[in-house]
Amino acid sequence: MSTVSRLPSTRQPLVATLSMPLPDLIRRLKYAGMYQEAGDAIALWLKKDLPEMLRRRLLLEQERLRRLPLDYPYDRAGALERIRKTFPTVDSDAFDRLEKEGKIDYLFVDGVKRYHVRFAATMEKDSLIRKAFGLPVQTENPFLDPMIRTLRSEGSLSVRITLKSALSLNPDTFVPGTYRAWLPFPTPCAQQSDIVLEAGNPVSVSPASAPSCSAYFEADFREPGRFETVYSYTSTIRYADPLHAPAPAQVLYPQEAPVCDADLQEDHVHIRFTPYLCALAADLTEGAASDAEKAWRIYEFITTKVHYSFVRDYLLLDDLAEYCALNLRGDCGLQAILFITLCRICSIPARWQSGLEYSGTSVGNHDWAQFYLPGWGWLFADCSYGGSAFRAGSALRHAFYFGNLDPARMAANRCFMADLTPDMQTLRRDPYDSQSGEMERVGSTEPLQPSDYTRDAELVQFTVLAGEKAQ
Known about the structure:
alpha+beta, 17 strands
């Protein structure tokens, strides 16, 4: 694909140009799957004297066109081979049916269907698909359910967590030089306190007020190197049942930052009050007697109607919330953004949290939402966990994740599309969220590719606190 210009040095305004459409010729080429031709057309457009925002939009689209086919590596034969590793009885007809039902994500590349890199993981995660093909579905979660029952009976639960995060340069693609790295770090927030850096040598750690918290590193490497942190913190959840219980005497998380104007507003390109989302919010909340009931109806819609699906990188989607609501599919982040957007349309303050989750066996990226109710203060909503519980037949977990979280989380981000501290000089691997870490080589105008470094996180210790140790 032709490239005639470098990406500008200011990252977030570049991404914000997604609020505008592409010129018609480029749009038609892109949606026909003619990525090379679309890239060539952009190169010609960039030779013109263009308005600055249009130029930046086209520069961003060059990068999106480069990344998009990489997310869809399987042809049909490869996709069938991959899915039969988990679902041996899936034949060609069943595959076609699942595709038509929207359970298998694909796009056209040069006239050929190509399938999403994680389409099989989506099917493996879906309880309804597992049931349909005779695979076991576990209603009880042996890690989460005991904590949920403790929270319901005791009213609160605190755990002490120690995590290790790392970024490692790949020897096969390594170029000597000075590297900068950002590793996610716990942010002081409603449920997190007593944060300690146990190991690692960062140049700095983001201030407590930063909307995205990370440990920042800079080092010169003559051979492939590694950045690493070990940190600990206390995670405390206080049980809330805003649908059935009266508000407490004081808000559950008095240390949490108060409501601000931003918690009710549109933001960048992915929290937009579009006509469809406004109509959807009105339909869902018609006749609701309280903000708690409105928020519940939004949560119930997402958890029961939106099919959990791993999706292409967020940078490759034009409007996350509307995409999720239109297609009734999306991962944890899309579901959280949709919940936040619909709440804000209904004048319920809502905001983002994200970072890491511990499932009892592994550590992974995860996103969820907060929403504000008078008397209760800031509460939580995890639509993807709630939806998984609903499809698995667990009424306990489905109800719990409206108002609550389990404490097995690490929150690093309190804002969607937040800048890093200090900001990167190249386009981020994930411009929307900081969960696994980012890296760049000083002096290079091109972003590092996923093959240039690996990102790892692992649990070191998970201890339930009791008595005087509990918060």
